[in-house]
Amino acid sequence: MDDPQPGRYHLYAGWFCPWSQRVTIAHALAGLRDVVTVSYVDNVRDGRGWAFRERYGPDPVNGFTLLRQAYEATEEDFDGHVSVPTLWDRGTAQVVSNDFKGIGIDFATRFRHVATPVIDTYPEAHREEIEQLDAWLNPAVNRGAPGSTAFLDALGTLDERLATRRYLLGPAITEADIRLYVTLVRLELRLADFPHLWDYARDLYTVPAFRDTTDFTTYGQAGELLDWDAPVDRPEGIPA
């Protein structure tokens, strides 16, 4: 990615996708609303792939009908995997990344000089701790099998951790919280069995960057069976 400039990049996202939501939350917390534009593919993937349809409107950048066309414009005879999030460079008219982890970190770090972040979600002093936690969190929770003993044990571990701290690493939201939230928000009733974790998830939901990127209608039953607006009492922290 070349030097980030306002208006140069566009993010193709999907409301349904937890990996995509990680990036849209990072985008909001990095203060990039007026720097990197965002549009959404439809929630239903047909035989042609991810498409732009009436619900979220047409592709505002290139007029593509399918996200695949962005990849084909980048690489002739492209025959690889098409996914959201996808970051498009208007300057070179190419896809520059579909690495959800890398895009989110870039938004929090490389774009700081062209935006006013709400909060620094990838502070240098905590990066090692964030990635160490992720080495466990990603396989155990993000890619875990909901309902399995291992998954429920992992939720129990998180519940204990969050009994005395507002966020995973302490008083401030970091990239670690973004990574956990996108899985929690897609769970169903079992989340309420872990009171500290449930309070933590609702606490994050009160933050506009999390709430405004969450659409329960795209998650099946998740969210419909729980009261995400119930009052929450958490340890003191740094507001976002």
UniProtKB/TrEMBL annotation:
GO terms under cellular component: cytoplasm
PANTHER family associated with the record: GLUTATHIONE S-TRANSFERASE OMEGA-LIKE 1-RELATED, GLUTATHIONYL-HYDROQUINONE REDUCTASE
SUPFAM superfamilies, A to Z: GST C-terminal domain-like, Thioredoxin-like
GO molecular function, one term: glutathione transferase activity
Species per Swiss-Prot/TrEMBL record: Dactylosporangium siamense
Protein name (record): GST N-terminal domain-containing protein
Domain GST N-terminal: 16-100
Lineage: Bacteria, Bacillati, Actinomycetota, Actinomycetes, Micromonosporales
InterPro entries, alphabetized: Glutathione-S-Trfase_C_sf, Glutathione_S-Trfase_N, GST_Omega/GSH, Thioredoxin-like_sf
Alphabetized Gene3D superfamilies for the sequence: 1.20.1050.10, Glutaredoxin (3.40.30.10)
UniProt xrefs under Pfam families: GST_C_2, GST_N_2
Highest taxon of source: Bacteria
